[in-house]
Structures are given as structure tokens and as C-alpha cells.
Q: What sequence folds into this?
């Protein structure tokens, strides 16, 4: 494996995962490993967590890794193909034509976590689009014993538009996809949310504005069509066979020229969609709502952020005890 010091500094390692080629050329993913994570036989934790980021995103939340390590988990995060650390100059940022395109790098990351680094218990943690991808992958992997529990932080389970606009947008993406897969759709991503979290604007967090730009990346026809196919599959019902925790804010806010204050709410997705569709993910789903939570709940201001970690600690201790397999799994 090609292991280097990660951009987050000496405490982290980056492992490049070659993923072959596609129509744009060479493809890689990047597994970020908290330094010090070693095979369980040497006395480290037998529990690990693998984090999947969302759209126009990458792993930068070091305090999330700190939380998991303090809880007794070794920490890993995957920058998916064409995102963050894995984005190459010849590629269209954050672009895929099927969400299953991400499955090979998740498979390889899980292999490293389990077979190379020796962990026997794995929590899969997905945020936003990464939450949708995590749910679909866990459904595909059911019965294989690869994952022991799933935590979804504000998962992208539906398009945050009224029904008519959801159908129109998805229909336009579906029509354009065969001939113009990279066509830019008029549906844009508001800059209010990234401004509210970046420390150079109104927030408290530092992240790379090349990988997670304030103005975002264009929404492409094939990407949106892929997301919609994944969502509709989930709406019909998945069969994830391990405990699932879904967390969402108690309210959403839609940024407009008149509505500039997006603090204390999800300014990206509709949290009621998450509550509606969460039960379709699997056999055992817990839903927790966080008052004052932002879209990425772990970036919320206090006291919401503390409550996120308290709820996650309680749920994790119940379903992923330090020894043995999870209760109900």
C-alpha cells in the first residue's frame, strides 16, 4: 500500500487506493487512517469506524476522529473517487454515473480495516450523500458480516424540493443523462451553509476551499439521476441486517435572499424526508432528532454538538459493545 502523511498532519495517514480507469482516465480513492491504528493483535481496539463524506465534501472533521478514538474505536475515513484527496486534474469533481461506482473503494477500505488491520467489529458512518451510499452498500453487503452497525448523519434520502419540482428535476436529469451526462442542471447549491461553517466567514471550522468550495460544484445530470435511482430504491425498502442509527436536525431552513440566517437548522436537506424514509432502510432503525443541529450534525454549535456525541455514545455502547458482536445484529 502507498501510505503517506495525510494533509491533516502527522497524526493521520493517507492510503491511495487505485480504482482502475473510467472514461475520464485514472481513478483513485483515498483511505485516511488515524495514525496509531494497528492490527488488533498488538493490543489496539478490535472496533473500527469507516466514515463516508457527502457531496462537495471530504473528511476534515478531526474532532469526529477524536471522539471515536476516545470511545474505543480506531478511525478511518474514505475520500471517494473524484472527491477531496482523490480528485485529479483530469476529472469532473464529485461526478459518477451510478452510486454503485463507489462500492469498489468501500469494499477495499473494509478489506483493509478488517483483513489487513485486524478489526473484527466495524461501524459504517455516512453523512448526507455518503449516508445514502452507505445504506445502499450495507444492503448489498447484507449477510456477509462485513459491517456490524450503520450511523447515518443527515442522510440524503430525498431531494429537498416540493414534489412537483422533485419530479421535474429528476425527469430532466433522466432525459439529459444518455446524451449529455455532464450537463449542468439549474439546481444549484446555496453558499449559505458552507459560509455558516467556515471560520473565514461565519463559522468555526477550517476546510480546503478547493475541495469544498463555498460556491460548490455544478450538479450534473447523470449524477442527479444516479442519486434519484438510489433514493427510489431505498424508498421501496432496503433490508440492511444490522442496527441503523439515523440522526437529523429538528428543522430545516431554505436559504433565500430574504432568509440569510441558517444557524441551528439543516440548510441543505429536508429533515422530514429523513424521518419519513429512515424506516425503509432496514429491520432495526433508530431515529434521533437534534435540536439546533446543522446539516453536518457534528459541525453544529454547542450544545447541539455535545448532544450528537452523547446520543451516538449511548447507541454505540448498546449495539457495539467493546467485546463481542452487537446486540440485535
A:
Amino acid at each position: 500500500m502507498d501510505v503517506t502523511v495525510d494533509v491533516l498532519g502527522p497524526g493521520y495517514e493517507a492510503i491511495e487506493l487505485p480504482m482502475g480507469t473510467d472514461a475520464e482516465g485514472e481513478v483513485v480513492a483515498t483511505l485516511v487512517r488515524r495514525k496509531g491504528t494497528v492490527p488488533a493483535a498488538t493490543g489496539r481496539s478490535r472496533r473500527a469506524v469507516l466514515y463516508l463524506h457527502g457531496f462537495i465534501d471530504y473528511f476534515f472533521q478531526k474532532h469526529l476522529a477524536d471522539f471515536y478514538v476516545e470511545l474505543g474505536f480506531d478511525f478511518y475515513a474514505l475520500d471517494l473517487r473524484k472527491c477531496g484527496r482523490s480528485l485529479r486534474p483530469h476529472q469532473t469533481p464529485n461526478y459518477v454515473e451510478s452510486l454503485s461506482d463507489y462500492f469498489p473503494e468501500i469494499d477495499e477500505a473494509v478489506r483493509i480495516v478488517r483483513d489487513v488491520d485486524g478489526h473484527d467489529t466495524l461501524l459504517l458512518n455516512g453523512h448526507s450523500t455518503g449516508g445514502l451510499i452507505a445504506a445502499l452498500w450495507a444492503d448489498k453487503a447484507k449477510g456477509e458480516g462485513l459491517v456490524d452497525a450503520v450511523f447515518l448523519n443527515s442522510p440524503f434520502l430525498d431531494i429537498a424540493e416540493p414534489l412537483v419540482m422533485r419530479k421535474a428535476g429528476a425527469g430532466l436529469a433522466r432525459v439529459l443523462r444518455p446524451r449529455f451526462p455532464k450537463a449542468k442542471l439549474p439546481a444549484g447549491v446555496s453558499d449559505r451553509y458552507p459560509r455558516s461553517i467556515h471560520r473565514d466567514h461565519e463559522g468555526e471550522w477550517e476546510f480546503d476551499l478547493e475541495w469544498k468550495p463555498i460556491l460548490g460544484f455544478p450538479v450534473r445530470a447523470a449524477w442527479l439521476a444516479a442519486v434519484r435511482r438510489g433514493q427510489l430504491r431505498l424508498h421501496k425498502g432496503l433490508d440492511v441486517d444490522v442496527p441503523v442509527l439515523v440522526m437529523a436536525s429538528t428543522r430545516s431552513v431554505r436559504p433565500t435572499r430574504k432568509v440569510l440566517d441558517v444557524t441551528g437548522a439543516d440548510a441543505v436537506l429536508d429533515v422530514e424526508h429523513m424521518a419519513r424514509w429512515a424506516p425503509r432502510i432496514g429491520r432495526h432503525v433508530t431515529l434521533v432528532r437534534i435540536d439546533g443541529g446543522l446539516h453536518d450534525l457534528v459541525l453544529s454549535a454547542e450544545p447541539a454538538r455535545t448532544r450528537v456525541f452523547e446520543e451516538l455514545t449511548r447507541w454505540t455502547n448498546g449495539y457495539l459493545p467493546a467485546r463481542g458482536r452487537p446486540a440485535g445484529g
Remarks:
- The mean pLDDT is 91.
- The two ends are 32 Å apart (CA to CA).
- The longest strand covers residues 9-22.
